Amino acid sequence: MSKKDSEYLINRKDNQYEVVIGLEVHAQVLSESKLFSTSATKFGAEPNTQVSLVDAAFPGMLPVINEFCVKQAIKTGIGLNAKINKRSVFDRKNYFYADLPQGYQISQFKDPIVGEGKVILDMPNGQKEVGIERLHLEQDAGKSIHDLDPQNTFVDLNRSGVALMEIVSKPDLRSPDEVNAYIKKLRSIMRYLGTCDGNMQEGSLRADVNVSVRPKGSKEFGTRCEIKNVNSIKFMQMAIEYEANRQVDLIEEGKTIDQETRLFDTKKNETRSMRSKEDAHDYRYFPDPDLLPLEVSEKFIEELKNDIPELPDDKKKRFIEEFRLSPYEANILVSDIDTAKYFEEVVAKMGKNKDIKLAVNWITGELFAVLNSKGLEISQSPVSAKNFAILINLIKNGTISGKIAKTVFELMIDGDKDPQKIVEEKGLKQQSDPKALEALIDKIINDNREKAIEYKQGKEKLFGFFVGQAMKASGGKANPQLINEILKKKL
Amino acid sequence: MSDITKQSLTELIENIKNKKLSSTDVTKAFIDRSEKSKELNAYITNDFTSALDKAKKFDQKPNFNLKLPGIPMAVKDLFCTKNIKTTAGSKILNNFVPTYESTVTENIWNEGAILLGKLNCDEFAMGSSNETSFFGNVQSPIDKNLVPGGSSGGSASAVAGKLTPVTIGTDTGGSIRQPASFTGIVGLKPTYGSCSRYGIVAFASSLDQAGPMAQNVKDCALLHEVISSYDPKDSTSIEFKRNHYSKELTNNIKGKKIGIPKEYRVDGMPKEIEDLWQKGIQYIKDCGAETIDISLPNTSYALPTYYIVAPAEASSNLARYDGVKYGFRAKGENLIDMYEKTRSEGFGAEVQRRIMIGTYVLSSGYYDAYYLKAQKVRKLIKNDFDEAYKKVDAILTPSTPSSAFKIGEKTNDPVSMYLNDIFTVPVNLAGLPGISIPAGHDSKGYPLGLQIIGKAFDEQNILNIAYAMEEKINFKNKITDWWIK
């Protein structure tokens, strides 16, 4: 395997292979109730406590579309720069499974609510555009639980009928890294829009991964395999790597690749066949006669457009222009909406005489470190944006040094304390009175005469020694810049 | 009053309001007659004890402002009724007790009516003779061993036999109008979207529609007025201004233009039916209306279209009966085995046949040739009617191509059974309202019906035409109470 020029290729003897990847992402719509019923959608509820008669497919029960979910799908479509279809159709996808109470899933087949769009990825070697084929709304199935009893399978229908958006990409992705960036970008956009929480642990975001390989430079696609239901980015990357190599090995051995559906075994780190094309279900799609075609007006779409917040790409552009951030810094700040919010709040609270670079460094440095070690999201930050801004200002206006600031920051964490008060109470204010510092430095030079002479004779390294002594004597509070200036003068 | 059960719904309401009869008197009378009529096998489940309790309660605190004050009523067992077993005529729902009420029955109880019981029907409403019911044949009150028609056979038998003053059925391809025609009663299939489908066990969702069955047009109009409502719980329910159909009922149809479609003159149609139709045309003229020859060119494609669309939807609608959540479950080695045994044992032959047809026509490779084409033809059939309604206000046809047949006569010939629906099916495909009224008898004395097809949402008009014709026809059902010992 090589990553020459950051191109992801699989090498075998004389041949190089390119990997072609397309994703079908299933994103759970952020909504209080299900797609066609009023049941709640809360994660982690007791089994079968969020199930209506509609979700359990009782005789004579009928689906009624949840308008909110429609809005969420359209908003997501707008976020993906996609065409919104004013008329879409719900179809039935028929198959039998114990956790599919209706015996069919209501989905959208021929006429999805959202058509073609695109997503821009920021890759180390520049931007990459990934095409979106479509986005459609569909119901989730329930959950079969096989490991609670040796004889029986249990079924939990809490998830049955929950709204999903299936976002289908074009086969534009070429490496596990691009897949990583793509999923993160999708998640970021949906979190900005509030249309999906993107929580992969809770299954709110999962993907079917289509992988094929072809000789480098070839224009034709190879035969693809679909890896079903992968629920973390890491597993997606591992699965792609394994699957691409498996396919390349087959080609190298002169064998053909069967189009099939495969499963990724996370324990063995391998994909294995689930069903071949011949065994593929015949889903017998047809328009659901219980639901009329979904029609939305131009006005309805326009109103939703007006409701769209600033999305990551625009925010990044603005951060670069308005705050003079580097693209790298801007990326870090905008990729997560809560980070961006925190940052903007800090900027606002810092007032007129602000040092944005300093704030960025502190957010991505100290704050991220604390959140990381405590396993917290930035929305749960123990230090409020307001107090964080005060701290940055204290550094900026010379009240405390960067070093002292770290001490203050540690004290702030416990109960979101006001840094100003900490500085006052602990007497941590920086000594910037030149007279006091001069007296302090005179004493140090007096106490270390020999070293002062050595310095004058050319042993310049000793300058650091004197700075250290001065800082130590001041209890770390001395203004380091002043110390430097005075020392230079006196020595 | 000894002849309570002979009274029409309108008379019963009048007598209850005038306190000449109590709800208890009326309820008791229909229960008594129902109990004497077990041989008809019209009921699957009775709720007589609690019906009497409810009647007594009504009498203690009567509300005469209701449209059906204290009126007892049995309903087709396709309507889910809260805490009362609902089987759809199938073994697979033999033990199913809903915790909810269908909107249509809810509307009925809200107007003061009292549930007598659940009436027999073809399994999942698939049949034209009530012979596919897991609970056995229904006998027609007209003659022993005669089918009452289907699928609302129990409903037709119960109204004609006076086991209930009126009832409701469902009509997917003729399931109200054909049995009404076979038993000499009135049956209305409303416009698709007029009555909510919520809580009705689904057969073919794009065709199913509930409707009233009664002894006369006025009763039919009143019951329709009660059951028709906009229901947000049914996405195909339509919001439109609904009439007070019974109040606005008039026999003045002077100047109305009634279309006579030549395509309904099918090969092999008995002369009796042709004669009946001609008589109908004369009645129309006698009422001061005008008849106009029209053409509905795609009529001959209606039946094949129906037998693609309806089984397709049914095959999917019936997938939920898998033994997992409710209803009958057979023991199986594993999940697939359990599914197969449950569905093989739980569904009867006709239902299985239609599931297989439906599965086939939706299969990849066949979808375009069957289902998609059928949808296109369906549109053409609807266009035929739209075109005709530019010239006429309603259309008159026979209800069925023959009178009722004997039990067992057509059970081995599904196609000949399906041909029963040849005049009713186009109406469902086009989503239009149609009413069957009794118009005469054949040589054996069996009733024959005429069908009036209206424009969408124009129930008032076809009710008026039926009302006017009813007066002229002056039909008398020949019922000997043969089953009462």
General description of the model:
The complex is a heterodimer of chains A (491) and B (485). The longest helix of chain A is centred in the middle third of the chain and has 20 residues, at 233-252. The two termini of chain A are 60 Å apart. Chain A has 491 residues and is of the alpha+beta class. Chain A folds into three domains: 4-305, no CATH class; 310-426, no CATH class; 434-490, Arc Repressor Mutant, subunit A (Orthogonal Bundle). Chain A is 38% helix and 20% strand. In chain A, the strands form four sheets. In chain A, strands 1, 2, 6, 7, 10, 11, 12, 13 and 14 form a nine-stranded mixed β-sheet that branches. A three-stranded antiparallel β-sheet of chain A has the order 5-4-15, with no helix packed on it. Chain A has a two-stranded antiparallel sheet with strand order 3-16. Chain A has helices at 67-79, 176-193, 233-252, 298-306, 312-323, 327-334, 337-349, 356-374, 385-396, 402-413, 419-426, 434-447, 449-456, 462-473, 480-490; strands at residues 9-12, 15-28, 87-88, 91-94, 104-107, 117-123, 126-139, 143-145, 154-156, 163-169, 205-215, 225-230, 260-265, 270-276, 286-287, 294-295. Chain B is α/β, with parallel strands linked by helices and 485 residues long. Chain B has one domain (4-263, 270-296, 383-473): Amidase signature (AS) enzymes. Chain B has 15 helices and eleven strands. Chain B has helices spanning 9-17, 23-36, 48-60, 103-110, 153-160, 177-183, 217-227, 271-286, 302-317, 335-346, 349-362, 368-388, 414-418, 425-430, 459-473; strands at residues 43-46, 72-76, 114-119, 167-171, 186-189, 209-214, 257-261, 290-294, 394-398, 434-441, 447-454. Chain B has an eight-stranded mixed β-sheet with strand order 4-6-5-10-11-9-7-8, sandwiched between helices. A three-stranded mixed β-sheet of chain B has the order 1-3-2, with helices on both faces. In chain B, helix 4 (103-110) links the parallel strand 2 (72-76) and strand 3. In chain B, helix 9 crosses helix 12. In chain B, 60% of the residues are buried. The A-B interface holds A 53, 56-65, 92, 94, 96, 98, 101-104, 153, 155, 282, 284-286, 289-292 and B 79-80, 86, 88, 93, 96, 98-100, 102, 197-202, 204-206, 232-236, 312-313, 315-316, 318-320, 322, 324-326, 335, 339, 359, 362-364, 367, 371.
